[in-house]
Amino acid sequence: MRESNDEPAEETSKAPHRRWCCCGFLRRRVRKDEETPDRNNDSREVTQEISSPAESVNAYAMELSTPPSDHSDEDYVPPAIDSDENKSNLVGLSDQINRITAMLKDWKLSQLLFVSIFGMTGIGKTTLAKEIFEHPLISDRFHHRVWVDLGPNYRPENVLHDIVAQLDADVDRMHHNVIKYLSKFMRSNTCLVVLDGVWDTEVFNYLLRFLKDMTKNRSAVLVTTTLEQVAVFSQSYRVHQMRLLNEEDSWSLLRHKVFDEMPCPPELVKPGKRIAENCEGLPLTIVTVADLLSKLEKSPECWKKIAEQEEHSVFMDAYEKMSEVLFPNYDYLPRHLKEPFLYSGVFPMKKSIPYSKIVNLWISEGFLEQNPLKTPENVAAECLKDLISRSVVMVHQQSTIHFYLFPIDVLKLVELRYLSLTYNGNLPSSISKLSNLECLIVGRPLAITSVENPLCLPVEIWDMKKLKHLQFTGSNQVPDPGEGSFLPNLVTLSDISARSCNTGVFRSIPNLKKLGIRIELSPDEATDREPLSCFQHISHLEKLESLKCVVVNPIFNTTGIAVCPPPPLSVFPSGLKKLSLCGLGYPWEEMSKIALLPNLEVLKLRSYAFRGPKWEVEDNRFLRLEFILIEDSDLVRWTAGNGSFPFLECLNIKHCYKLQAMPRKFSFDLGKIQVVDCTPLVVNWAKKLTKIDVRVDASWDDKTLKK
């Protein structure tokens, strides 16, 4: 994976994002089913605690997949927002209306134009489509306009009959030659056909096949859908993806819905903006909350209380009201997607979910269909991509996802295969009873982490054969395995003590791909080379792809030389792609062993990982490197031979106060340079490289840096 900056995205986003919707509608749906007389006793068990998470989700999915007794086969799912109520719903839509209207008006080609409005439920797709449908420019452009409200159970033949009825009311709806009639009519007229709320790709493909054959006269089809697969179907398509409202537009919509044309009292503006912000830009939430607010006392005390309480009855009632609109998003998911989606409820509100965490949980709990041709990680990635394409999961930021519509009733299901805890002490040997555990994350408060008190794992850890990920905070010792002990599935091991990096341990984790080593030296260990000998056994990890080694408190003498020079670097596995070193104090000459790694793409050197005034890179070195970071170094002169760094894309130089000379040229692929608190010579060198994004940051005011 290529890196665009010096650090990957944090595992947990700190942005205050609130989950909504599903908590209310699932509770309401379960209660409704329980009140139905002919439901059996098993339906009530969905609200009871079940020992197995997988069994719980399966039971819950079965419960939700059974429609209540009053469910009709011809259910119509109404638009989430009534766009006919007033024009306040158009907040934030003006530029989108103009864009799509111009797109339809200016279409000159003979073939059918297909425009899709794509986005999650409640974001305003139908409102936008109606404004376009009724726009004067559109009525002038098309001879005939047809609007068809679809739903999950709408039949394709009914759509064709509805189109005919709107084009010519005198035509019998049961006319047997509907297709022939439509073909003749639409070839001689320009028509706009709006299909609002497409839920099924097969139904849509059927309709579009006929419409494309019928239409050769600059006509257009406008579709609203939550399905990305529908949105990008046609070769002559134009996709418009709806966006959430910003804070200003959210407040404007809320204000209009509550006060109509009347001004908002000044004392309500501040709490009102906070209430609008809690709606996270989704128009459906804003409109529903506004409807409830309009019926309450309009006082600063009342509104402030609502704004400050995340679970205030106004929000809870709003989620309940939204349930009828939101439930079909779950109800019409394919069965293989329902259980992974339901499991999102294990995460608390106001949290974004790291990609790696949700994938590991899905795999651990066995919610994914097995495919002998694909790894579980690939199956999980496809599952997540499918949920995103159906607009029930929204990408929140790089490396994280954010679930809307999650079932609050599943919040208690984290157990058995995934365990994350903060614990000040050694884990008990009974941890091995969790024989199905795949992910174990153990953190300790930073205030009590010390060199003298390392975390020691029990020897029984080697009995947990299904472990895939072991992640710790602080220096942690892994016991030597007994004869024949090994962890065949372990792929991640982070923050282990260097003293645990021996031949016995490494040979017992043959499939490890990611390793993090943490070295903490006490003053008494200043001359002890043993902790720094951890690299001598790395070659046993033949499948290793990522290695990070940090000396937390490196000890150097007054001349800047390590009190105990590290032993020579050993041979690294040839498959290594990412290497991060910190505080080791190696001489730059040792870098020659790293330069020959055939697959190395990312190199990070921090806190005097290498020391000395000169780094000379020979010809044809670092042949796959894409990203390099040098931070806190005493390097003075850096040179590179011909053919070195041919694929380097990003270069970060930070806090290198002595650096005077840099390589004269890099490859044409170099696209980004970041220089932080370095000498003016480095800054000027970077700025001379044309067609490259150069960012310079300095903690002092130097005129040289402003040129």
Question: Can you describe what's shown?
Answer:
The chain has 707 residues and is α/β, with parallel strands linked by helices. Among the domains are: 93-241, P-loop containing nucleotide triphosphate hydrolases (Rossmann fold), CATH 3.40.50.300; 417-601, Leucine-rich repeat, LRR (right-handed beta-alpha superhelix); 612-707. It is built from 20 helices and 25 strands. Strands 9, 10, 11, 12, 13, 14, 15, 16, 18, 21, 23, 24 and 25 form a 13-stranded parallel beta sheet that branches. The radius of gyration is 31 Å and the shape is globular. The two termini are 35 Å apart. The relative contact order is 0.08.
Helix/sheet category? alpha/beta
Q: How large is the radius of gyration?
A: 31 Å
Any guess at the CATH architecture of the domain at 417-601?
Alpha-Beta Horseshoe
The parts where pLDDT drops under 50 for at least 5 residues are 1-76, 398-414, 446-451
Strand coverage percent: 15-25%
Roughly what is the average pLDDT, rounded to an integer? Answer: 75
Instruction: Give a quick account of the main beta sheet: strands, pairing sense, barrel closure.
Output: 13 strands, parallel
Got a strand count? 25
The count of helical stretches stands at 20
Fraction of residues in helices?
25-40%
Terminal CA distance: 35 Å
CATH-defined fold name of the domain at 417-601: Leucine-rich repeat, LRR (right-handed beta-alpha superhelix)
Q: Please report the first level of CATH classification, the CATH class of the domain at 417-601.
A: Alpha Beta
Form type: globular
